[in-house]
Design a protein that fits this description.
This protein is mainly α. Helices cover 66% and strands 0% of the residues. It has 7 helices and no strands. The longest helix has 31 residues, at 133-163.
Length: 171
Amino acid sequence: MGPDVTKSLAQLTGVDWGMAPEKASSLVRDRHEFRQTPMGSLSIPALTRLLALDFQGDCDYLIPHSLDRLALFPLEDAKAISQHCILLLGVLRNEHYNWMQMPELVRQARRLVEKACYTLYCDSDEAEQTSDSLEYYKVLLPNTQMESSLYEALVRFEQRLSKVESGTAPD
């Protein structure tokens, strides 16, 4: 079960950065705003950006929430699939989260990779039915690249899990 989605990262972590400085860059302003926004109101791209910043305490809340969101996120169109996969890559690549304490989240991450790759495969297969070769390759190439990125991230994720010496790796 993820964090209380009615609370912001600032509330959950107890670290409130306050308002961004007046002349701050858009990245800094976004980061401050995202930390003040209730978790349930953060968009998929906002979650992705927060994970990319990789503040150690934040991942304790961002990883479970991201996995919950990804499990519910409908994969309806190319943009949704892309955002879904990019967030999933951010989750898998995070090196600060203590996965060994959360074996159910490890299983959930693995299932989400399989679901995303299957969706990409089906999307490519469906595009193959068109008589327009250019349209087919516009779908096939990015999908194949994303599928490859997901499997590569999953392999590295599994390698990190196997290096942990405290007990047995989650199945």
